[in-house]
Each structure stands twice: as C-alpha cells, then as structure tokens.
Amino acid sequence: MRFQSLSMTHVCLSSIVSVVPCRRGYIPIASQLGRQNRNVATRNQRGDNELSGAWNEKIERRVPSLNARNRTVCPQAHQELHMNAGLQTMDVNNSVTRQIWRSDKPGKISDLKLVTDELAAPAAGEVQVAVKAVGLNFADVFTCLGLYSASPKGVYTPGLEFAGVVAAVGENVESVKVGDRVLGLTRFGAYASHLNVSPKYLRPCPSDWSYAEAAAYSVQALTMFYALRELGNVQEGQTVLIHSAAGGCGTFALGICKQLKAKVVATVGSEDKVKYLVDYWGADFLSYEQIIVRKGGGKIFKDQLAANLSTLGVDGFDCIIDAVAGDYFHPGYESLTRGGRHVVYGASNFTPTGDKPNWLTLAWKYIRRPVIDPMQMMSDNKSVMAFNLIWMFDKVEKMERFFEGLQSLNLRAPLVGHTFPFSKALDALRTFQTGKTTGKVVLVLD
Ligand SMILES: NC(=O)c1ccc[n+]([C@@H]2O[C@H](COP(=O)([O-])OP(=O)(O)OC[C@H]3O[C@@H](n4cnc5c(N)ncnc54)[C@H](OP(=O)(O)O)[C@@H]3O)[C@@H](O)[C@H]2O)c1
C-alpha cells in the first residue's frame, strides 16, 4: 500500500523542488520507486507487469467503485434498493446510524471530526461489518496531513484495516454470514463504527485473537511478507537488517525472519526499545548485540553496522528492510553483501510531528533525499527495490496468496502495543506520529 512518506511527500514536494537542479542520470531512490511501485534490481528483475505504471492507471480507474461501497443513504438510494428480507440479508430500509471520523479536506489532523451518518444496508455482493477495532497506519497520518497522493482528494475518512462482526450481508454473498468474526482491508474509510465492504477483502478472524489483534494484522503482515518474501527473497541462514524493529511492521518482519531461520540485526530510534525487543523475542533470536540504536546520522550508523556485522561474522547483509531511509539509506546500502537486496517501503524520518506539515523542513529533507546510480548498482551487484502495497489493493488473488503464505509461517498473534477508545482517534494519531510507540496502535469500539 502506498504508505511510505517519501513517496507521499514526493508528490507534494516535487513541484517545490522542480527549480532545484537534479543530479542527472541518478535515480532518487524510494521516492520515485515507491511512487510507481517499481523496483530497480540488478540481480534479479522482479518488477512484473502488474507493478507497471499502466497497471497503476488501471487501478486508479477502478478506485471509485471501491470507494463507492461506503456510500451513505440518500432518499433516492433508499428507493432504488430493493427489499430482500431474510435471516442473512438485510431489509434495505434498515440503514444503520454509525459514527465515523471525517474531514472536509486533508491538511490538518485536528480537522478530523467524529460525526454520525446513516449507512445504507449492504447492496448485493456486499457485507456490512460492525467494526470492533481499527488498526492505525502511517498512511492515516499522511492522509490527514495531505501528504499522501493515494488518498481521496476531498472529504475523507482515514483507515485501511479493521476487525469486527458481520452485521448483515447483501444478496449473493455466501462466503460469510451474520455473526462471523472477521478482519478486513478497505481502501480508506475504516475509522467508522460500520462499513459496507466486499467480502473479497475479509478474512476469518482466528478464534483466539482479540479484535484489536485482528485489526493489527492485515496491512503490516502483508507489507512485510511482500518485502521479505516476494522482493527480498530471504532464505534460511541469510542476514537481514530490519529498521524500526519495535514498530508494527518491524514486529512482523522479525516474526517472519524467525520462522525463515534468517539471522537479524534490528535498528530502533531510542534506547528504551532495546530491552523491550529482547524481552519479547528472547535473546537466543535477538540479543542486545543484534540491536542498534540509530543515532548521530549516517556516518556513525555506518560504523555501528560494521561492528554488528563483525560480531555476527558475516561480510554484509543479504537483505535490508527499510522504512526509515534518509541519512540511513546509504550506510545500509553500502553494508549489503554482493547480491544483496535493499527493500525500501517507507521513509519515516519525513514524518511531520505537528498538526500540519512544516513545508520548509519537508522540502529540505526532500532535497537531501538519497539518490542512487543504477550503473554503480550494477558494478556493486546490489539491488534497490521499493513498493507501496496500496497499489495492489485490486490484486485479490495475489493478496490471497500472501495471506496463505503468512498463514503457513504460523506467526504469533499481532503485538498490540497501544489501544485507544474510538472517540480518542486524534490522541491515537498524535501518539502514533511521535514514533515512540511499540507494536501496533489500535482504536477499539464497544
Ligand atoms: N510501503 C507500504 O506498502 C507500507 C505499508 C505499511 C507501512 N509502511 C511504512 O512502514 C513504516 C512503519 O509503519 P508502521 O505502520 O509499522 O508503524 P510503526 O512501525 O508502528 O512505527 C514506525 C516507526 O518509525 C520510526 N520512526 C523513525 N523516524 C520517525 C519519525 N520521524 N517519526 C515517527 N516515526 C519514526 C519509529 O521507530 P524507530 O524510531 O524505533 O525506528 C516508529 O516506531 C512507515 O514508514 C510506513 O509508512 C509502508
């Protein structure tokens, strides 16, 4: 999904910096790669047709129909819907009054307001879910700040993933029934007490998971599966560098690497996360020596990486999972072994900390963003890949395959670090935005 801040900010900032001379012949990594969901791979060219610009355009055209699912009731729509009473279908006049977070336009987090509206009964082929928990993602923050090019342009509701109970099903829906516990994905709009969605984006919620755990699963698990398995091609015994390892994505990355029997080095932004990580994972998989607290920018980081590699007795990383980028990109790339893959899926050091973006700071960071020379990559025999899973929202078969792949890894239940009542979504977003959270941040509903 297109969550990563570099790609989001790129769109907004590209106009600002168009007056700045580009370094010709170089690829600005992550920003453009992530935006187009393409990869630059010298070792193995993994960008398939589905990830091409043409495909992106195709999905853009489909988006209105996806968003239309969460329509609200208008009198005409009421009349147009035909009655279909029955145990597993809903009387079309049974619209539900729901609570939903909404803003007239992106720009400021505080513009998001909790309102009520009427949600129509699910149409044919749709399912209505009474939402019990909503998982937060960086995309939510960037959507609110107006820095996310994939988000709706006008009135919007953030939120990509949720868990809840099936409250009603429309005609021709057989895969779920009323009362089923489900987890699901939606292309925005999840900050709501009720949703109408396609069953294609629902999965059964494991019986031993809480709703909060279920809402913490889909986005980050799929993101890390795609990064480590599809692009990173991580194999048993390989060495993987995982940035922001205490966060939601980082936790899944560590879980996947553990199951794949890969060796890991983890980075975090602050000292307090180190003990938390060792306690959670156990020192036999992740010891203190395998955790780097990033500080002092790229130069010191390079030395920190060298020290860790020497402790591990390996000459370089086979794969790097990077959502920090910025000053930390090049030291990482330089620490790849030959044949190594650097997978960029975000750039959290672009995250604005306030209620709205500071454009000067963003422009400065954007000008200084990492760039990489494909010719150099060829002689280095290293790859840089980038993606945004949101552009795969329509690739249901692929998602199915990834979900199955995840299931076969038998991961632990997602780690929920922080829960907030639904009514405190703004507090949750502001806490999330600090980067000090561990595990997943989740909104819970009664
Ligand atoms: N491409 C995709 O499809 C996709 C999908 C999902 C998420 N993402 C990206 O993955 C990253 C992690 O997302 P997540 O949902 O899993 O969140 P998360 O891990 O819970 O938190 C992200 C982490 O980013 C780190 N960070 C570094 N600098 C930061 C800053 N200036 N402000 C805030 N945080 C900062 C923090 O950890 P440390 O300080 O410990 O490093 C923070 O815990 C985000 O960049 C997000 O955009 C991308």
TrEMBL record:
A GO MF label: oxidoreductase activity
Gene3D superfamilies assigned to the protein according to its UniProt record, in alphabetical order: Medium-chain alcohol dehydrogenases, catalytic domain, NAD(P)-binding Rossmann-like Domain
Enoyl reductase (ER) domain span: 107-443
Record InterPro entries: ADH-like_N (IPR013154), ER (IPR020843), GroES-like_sf (IPR011032), NAD(P)-bd_dom_sf (IPR036291), Zn-ADH-like_protein (IPR051397)
A Pfam match: ADH_N
Superkingdom of origin organism: Eukaryota
Protein's UniProt name: Enoyl reductase (ER) domain-containing protein
Annotated source species: Ceratodon purpureus (Fire moss)
